[in-house]
């Protein structure tokens, strides 16, 4: 008999990361009459994308910039298609959020005049190794109730209304049933859909947090929420093997990309779209073409930057990615005399760098009543980074607080709860019954092989066509039923089972999106070899989807692009 833990709260936040912590603080400060609970899969002090820290706030309005200029930049960087209302509303809160976190103890570098020190047009420098503990402390101090080590497996619903969530504890195996009037998804995006760059014991040496496995996407998909822009995957440029962020070098040291011949290919081959300042998808596409055409490896040319600049680079990496410094030391590499080799990563589905996620309104309401989304899981607004996730957490918190007075009680049947309990512990029960079944790691390997070979993985230079995607669709179609045969012999493996269940649901939606958009708007992120050109006449619009909760059928649709901010659109 599985023990149940029943929780009643006003606001439920699923995910105690960047957006979740900020949302909790904002909700408690603005609406102290409401109870707030956070469910976190790991421990809130060191979970999510900020677990290792940050050395910059990558979205901030430095002097001379405005929300309107930021929207124009993001629109250009995203090749002409964004939700301008969402990008503008989050940019209006950058300063509010950054000042708030600074007041909590975040060290932000300032010049002699007390102004923040910029690192590029939209960035400011910080000493952010302890950024996540700072955020978690603020969330707890606000009065929000935090439940660590709790794996959320699904949402509770009453028709089109979300009424809470269920999950299990990784520490005691209890089944948690959480009733709430408003639910915020803040779980981050999805890693692990494709084979990682590094294999074996190093397979978790990825750019995006490997523990962000698409759970927030998947539970919304299963409940019938409308999703957007999954086909705009994110393929990052990172240092070879260590997979450390390259902005620290490119912006901090002004290092250009060069190929094995020493050619600054972004300038010589992509001059017409801005060279080194080309839209971000092209800055991933360029290195891939150099390697594909036999001019690799590709590097960031740090030769000659000087000892002081090397010291600054190492200090910056120690704030967020110390393994890069250790890699240089272990291999006796001096960036001042040897260029830093770079590579592209496996694709991720993430709404913070790109714009895959829930279709939301300006208040971050999803299409399901009582359900909200913020941060990497919310769609339509790329270039969020840390401060944009904070801003969306603030917006969602304010909206939830205002909506709560209009939300009545909802019914959750015991039948639904019992069904979710059985689903949550199915892999456990399979093991107890002696079923040989499928270990989660085996299904993960199968999913990643399908996606790698037929859905635009690194081994195919991120390219795809209709025939490849049809094979991916067919092979993926058998996986949902096979998840019923997953086995888990402990609570950790039970978590892994749910991670692969969630990834399968996300992967199926991703393939449908990639098949539906018949153009190449974001090279490498979404390269269709059968539709190699950008097509504004037919595809300057959003590709959205809804999965029927009963049949599992995925319905595809489009939503119009609306330009709210005057200014010329980016043209290649």
Short overview:
The chain has helices spanning 18-30, 67-77, 84-91, 94-103, 131-141, 215-223, 247-250, 265-269, 280-292, 307-318, 322-330, 385-404, 414-424, 426-432, 440-454, 466-476, 479-482, 491-516, 536-539, and strands at residues 4-14, 36-39, 54-57, 124-128, 145-147, 150-158, 161-169, 175-185, 227-228, 237-239, 257-259, 298-300, 340-344, 357-358, 371-373, 463-464, 527-528, 541-547, 554-560.
Report the average pLDDT across residues.
95
- In the CATH hierarchy, the architecture of the largest domain is 3-Layer(bba) Sandwich
* Number of domain units: 3
Q: Termini, distance in Å?
A: 62 Å
Structural class: alpha/beta
Q: Largest sheet, if any? A: 7 strands, mixed
The CATH topology annotation of the largest domain reads as FAD/NAD(P)-binding domain
CATH superfamily of the largest domain: FAD/NAD(P)-binding domain
Helix content: 25-40%
Helix segment count? 19
Rg computed from alpha carbons, rounded to a whole number of angstroms: 23 Å
Described by the principal axes of the CA atoms, the overall outline is globular
Describe this structure in words.
With 572 residues, the chain is α/β, with parallel strands linked by helices. It folds into 3 domains: 250 residues, 3-Layer(bba) Sandwich (FAD/NAD(P)-binding domain), CATH 3.50.50; 108 residues, Flavocytochrome C3, Chain A, domain 1, CATH 3.90.700.10; 122 residues, Fumarate reductase/succinate dehydrogenase flavoprotein-like, C-terminal domain (Methane Monooxygenase Hydroxylase, Chain G, domain 1, Up-down Bundle). The chain has 19 helices and 19 strands. β18 and β19 form a beta hairpin. α6 crosses α18 and α15 packs parallel to α18. It is globular.
């Amino acid at each position: 008999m599985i023990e149940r833990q029943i929780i009643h709260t006003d606001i439920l936040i699923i995910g105690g990361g960047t957006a979740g912590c900020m949302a909790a603080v904002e909700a408690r400060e603005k609406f102290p009459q409401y109870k707030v609970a956070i469910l976190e899969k790991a421990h809130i002090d060191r979970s999510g994308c900020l677990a290792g820290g940050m050395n910059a706030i990558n979205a901030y309005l430095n002097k001379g910039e405005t929300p309107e200029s930021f929207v124009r930049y993001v629109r250009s960087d995203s090749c002409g298609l964004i939700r301008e209302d969402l990008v503008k509303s989050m940019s209006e809160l950058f300063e509010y959020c950054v000042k708030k976190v600074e007041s909590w103890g975040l060290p932000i570098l300032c010049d002699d005049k007390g102004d923040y020190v910029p690192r590029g047009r939209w960035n400011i420098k910080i000493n952010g190794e302890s950024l996540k503990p700072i955020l978690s402390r603020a969330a707890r101090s606000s009065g929000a109730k935090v439940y660590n080590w709790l794996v959320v497996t699904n949402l509770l619903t009453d028709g089109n209304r979300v009424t809470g969530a269920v999950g299990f504890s990784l520490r005691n195996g209890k089944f948690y049933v959480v009733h709430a009037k408003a639910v915020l998804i803040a779980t981050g995006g999805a890693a692990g859909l494709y084979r990682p760059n590094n294999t074996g014991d190093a397979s978790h040496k990825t750019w995006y947090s490997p523990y962000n496995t698409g759970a927030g996407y998947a539970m919304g998909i299963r409940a019938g929420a409308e999703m957007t822009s999954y086909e705009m995957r994110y393929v990052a440029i990172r240092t070879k093997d260590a997979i450390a962020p390259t902005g620290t070098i490119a912006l901090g040291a002004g290092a250009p990309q060069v190929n094995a011949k020493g050619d600054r290919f972004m300038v010589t081959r992509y001059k017409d779209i801005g060279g080194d300042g080309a839209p971000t998808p092209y800055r991933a596409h360029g290195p891939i073409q150099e390697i594909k055409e036999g001019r690799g490896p590709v590097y960031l040319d740090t030769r000659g930057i000087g000892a002081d600049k090397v010291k600054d680079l190492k200090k910056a990496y120690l704030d967020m990615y110390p393994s890069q410094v250790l890699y240089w030391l272990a291999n006796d590499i001096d960036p001042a005399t040897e260029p830093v080799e770079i590579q592209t990563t496996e694709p991720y589905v993430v709404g913070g760098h790109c714009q895959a996620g829930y279709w939301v309104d300006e208040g971050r309401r999803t299409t399901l009543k009582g359900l909200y989304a913020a941060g990497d899981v919310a769609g339509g607004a790329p270039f969020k980074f840390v401060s944009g996730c904070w801003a969306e957490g603030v917006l969602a918190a304010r909206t939830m607080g205002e909506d709560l007075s209009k939300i009545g009680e909802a019914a959750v049947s015991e039948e639904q709860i019992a069904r979710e309990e059985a689903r949550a512990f199915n892999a456990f029960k399979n093991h107890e019954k002696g079923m040989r079944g499928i270990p989660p790691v085996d299904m993960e390997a199968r999913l990643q092989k399908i996606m790698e070979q037929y859905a635009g993985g690194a081994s195919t230079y991120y390219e795809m066509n209709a025939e490849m995607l049809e094979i991916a669709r067919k092979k993926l179609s058998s996986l949902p039923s096979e998840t019923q045969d997953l086995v888990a012999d402990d609570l950790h493996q039970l978590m892994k089972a749910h991670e692969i269940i969630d990834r399968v649901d996300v992967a199926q939606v991703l393939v449908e999106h990639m098949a539906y958009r018949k153009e190449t708007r974001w090279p490498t992120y979404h390269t269709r070899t059968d539709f190699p050109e950008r097509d504004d006449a037919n595809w300057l619009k959003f590709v959205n989807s809804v999965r029927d909760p009963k049949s599992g059928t995925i319905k595809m649709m489009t939503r119009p692009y609306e330009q709210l901010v005057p200014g010329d659109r980016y043209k290649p």
